[in-house]
Write a structure and sequence with these properties.
Number of domains: 1
Largest sheet: none
Distance between the termini: 32 Å
Number of strands: 0
Shape: globular
Structural class: mainly alpha
Helix content: over 70%
Length: 306
């Protein structure tokens, strides 16, 4: 993994981590499906304007690949966002956090089943170390699998499966297509689907001006929490394996903890620092590539020089 790819993937986790805190403010004012539709429609509108002015709409290609684009929209936008936000509404934050740590494992499994990647021992070891760090932050003893939370837990599992599948499918799709073009049309199809789910759920105050704190949260959620990170995600998947991109999800609990300490008066403990160390160590181990041996021509050249 190059330094450039690493920087953008870390930026992606920071943006998503901050969005987790911001979304708490938003879903107190809007319903989960309403917010999911709004952020998807905004992203689709902005990106479609960009590719329109760049003359990159390529409608014929959209018609030719509409099934693939609709599948990406279904997994990455409709099911992913709807299941996550609705699941968070019906279950606890502890349950949601623990269940979402399955994303790297599920992504690797989907990629292996599809034949796109092979499972390596260092990925298993790294994922196990990072998962231990997550358990230090969010102990499994606080997981409450009761009937009251069962619906939310199952929805969150659906979110994990949908997002993992999206990472794998998008990785293969953007190999041959522009990440910006792909993201624009995926969000358009996704926003249509979310609108069909959310139009009966729109609150009466949807078109009114919200309070100032909610306005700031909306501004970040639309741009920093959706538009920018999904563009980065598509570019990252074009140059990095989907399983490695997914492994960096383990960083989000540590990022959320750090941001919470800075902006919400949360306190860092010895346990949280140790958990952060384990998470970073696990991601580092899982994403290390062996140095490539010099090819035959290079070796021959070196022997000639000596």
């Amino acid at each position: 993994m190059t330094a450039s790819n690493l920087f953008w993937i870390l930026t992606l986790q920071f943006l998503f981590g901050l969005n987790y805190l911001v979304s708490k403010t938003i879903v107190l004012h809007y319903t989960p499906l309403t917010w999911a539709f709004a952020r998807s429609f905004f992203t689709a509108f902005v990106l479609l304007m960009v590719i329109f002015f760049r003359k990159e709409t390529r409608f014929r290609e959209v018609l030719a690949r509409k099934k693939d684009l609709m599948l990406l929209a279904l997994t990455g936008i409709i099911l992913n966002q709807a299941c996550f936000l609705l699941g968070l509404k019906f279950t606890t934050s502890y349950n949601s956090a623990l269940i979402n740590t399955l994303i790297p494992i599920c992504t690797l499994a989907v990629a292996a089943i599809k034949g796109f990647e092979s499972i390596k021992s260092k990925q298993i070891i790294g994922a196990a170390i990072a998962l231990c760090g997550v358990f230090v932050l969010t102990p499994p003893s606080q997981f409450n699998f009761s009937n009251k939370h069962l619906v939310g837990d199952l929805l969150t599992v659906g979110n994990v499966l949908a997002y993992s599948t999206y990472l794998v499918l998008n990785r293969e799709f953007v190999k041959n297509h522009s990440p910006l073009w792909t993201t624009a049309w995926v969000f358009l199809f996704g926003s249509v689907g979310l609108f069909l789910c959310a139009f009966q759920d729109l609150p009466p105050h949807f078109f009114t001006v919200p309070p100032a704190p909610v306005q700031r949260a909306l501004a970040y959620g639309l741009v920093g929490g959706t538009l920018v990170p999904y563009i980065i995600l598509s570019y990252a998947l074009k140059h990095t394996k989907s399983s490695n991109v997914a492994l960096f999800v383990y960083l989000q609990p540590a990022i959320v903890g750090a941001l919470g300490a800075l902006f919400y008066d949360h306190h860092f403990t010895k346990e949280s620092l140790f958990a952060t160390f384990l998470i970073f160590t696990g991601v580092f181990v899982a994403t290390q590539y062996p140095r490539k041996a010099p090819n035959a021509e290079c070796r021959q050249s070196q022997e000639t020089m000596t």
